[in-house]
Amino acid sequence: MSTRLGAGFGRLWTSAIASNLADGIGRTAVPLIGTTLTHDPALIAGLTAVTFLPWLLFGIPAGMLLDRVDRRIAMAVANSVRFAVAALLALLIAGDALTIWWLYACVLLFGLGETVFDNATTTVVPSLVTRDQLDRANGRMQSAEIVIQNFVATPVAGFLFAASLLLPVWLTGAGFLIAGLLALTIPAAAARAHAFGGEHAGEARPGMGAVVRFLAGHRFLRPMIILTSITASALAFAQGSVVLLLLNTYGLPAALVGVVTALIGVGALAGALLSSRFVARFGRGRVMFVSILVSGLGIGCVGLTGNVVLGILAYAIGAFGVAVWNVPWGALRQAIVPNAMLGRAMGIVRSIGWGLTPIATILGGFVARIDLKLPFLIGGVVVVVLTLIATRLLLSADSYGPSAASGSGTEAPTDTIPEGTVK
After folding, report:
1. What is the distance between the alpha carbons of residues 362 and 171, in angstroms, rounded to a whole number?
2. pLDDT (tens digit per residue) in 150-203
3. Contact at 8 Å (CB) between 317 and 297?
4. What is the pTM of this model?
5. pLDDT tens per residue across span 78-114
6. E strand or H helix at 58, and its extent?
7. What is the domain class of 11-196+204-399 according to CATH?
């Protein structure tokens, strides 16, 4: 019998909804604004690359920060900075002073705030729900993200852009500001890195070296981090120039880009809503294996067709697979990693995974100069091949899930992890 996730989680969820609204509008508007400055696929893909670059540069420092400070304050400050950047971008547009390089700079600053806010959101969840609720909580967070970004923010952003370049920018800034203020309502105890109970109560905060040793020595997390990093890069390689694919190959007007993105989001929403049920019925390992395989097949099929209906359908199937994957993978990391080091661990994981994304995205942009569909085909094939290679690893995920983990969320120390060290 499922129990309520609680008022504290509801407050975090509300803050995340406001931030997702801002992200959804911004991520649709920025590439569209970019197309008014250049039609070079490599430069447009570069905008997406710069979005992820902060995870390479600031992901680990952000995690270190979040393991030391009140995470509510960090979320509020991060989104206040993003509000200020949105205001600067609006002023540049209003003054007809915006260039592609100014746009790059603003996107980079948006990303710096994201490393703090999004990392904090992930690290607070395990303090607000019980271990057996992690799949449901992550599914709820991802469902909200998909609904807000794909069905509300993205379509609205397309129409706002068609009316005025300034409207989506100001709404993006307002969403960030509201999300930051809402973050301050999260229970204080859950937002402090040292506030974790059970057998970890009273333990000293483990050092950065202990976090690195645990990640490097964990028999499941180490290969999973490598696998997810490469697959994420392959998907980024595929999608860096998607706005040009929609505009040029599929011939969509700019105002409908958000509508099409919403249609693709139907697949992602279905995946997020069904993922925890799939895990309960079929097991975590099988679900993770099938979902990532489906994501690769869907994305790859986008590269095989120039038909807008088939392309959108394939894209939606790929999005379904990614959304199903994200829920159990997120719950696994939260179950395995103790709260006191979760910020730094997530910073390392995302720095490795998303740090490769800018390079992959730019490479995909150059390949898109040949054919806008080709990056999708290549990226999909890479994901499928990697999934088949990692079949045994993925199927072993049942041994490490929230229901299988010990109270600490860690496995027994190995010869590469000093006894008593936690991840």
Report:
1. 28
2. 677 777 777 788 788 788 889 899 999 999 999 888 887 766 654 444 334 444
3. yes
4. 0.68
5. 999 999 999 999 999 998 899 999 999 999 999 889 8
6. helix 41-66
7. mainly alpha
Question: Dihedral, CA atoms, 81, 85, 90, 91, nearest 10 degrees?
Answer: 100
361 touches 238 (CB < 8 A): no
Strand-pairing partners, residue 192, are 70
Helices within 240-338 (DSSP H only): 242-244, 257-282, 284-302, 308-336
Domain ranges of the chain: 11-196+204-399
Between CA 372 and CA 207, with CA 112 as vertex, the angle to 5 degrees is 120
Structure tokens at 104: 């790059």
- What is the spatial distance between Cα 7 and Cα 374, in angstroms, rounded to a whole number? 47
Count how many residues are written for the chain: 423
Quote the CA–CA distance of 272 and 320 in Å, as a whole number.
8
* Measured distance CA(117)–CA(295) in Å, rounded: 27
96: left (phi over 0), alpha (psi -120 to 50) or beta: left
User: What amino acid occupies position 124?
Assistant: V
Cα-based distances in Å from 359 to 62, 275, 318, 396, 416:
21, 30, 22, 31, 31
Task: Please report, as a single letter, which amino acid is at residue 3.
Answer: T
Cβ neighbours of residue 310 under 8 Å, at least 6 residues apart?
301
Q: Is the dihedral of CA 301, 307, 310, 316 positive or negative?
A: positive
187 Rama sector, left if φ>0, alpha if ψ -120 to 50, beta otherwise: beta
Tokens of 118: 């999004």
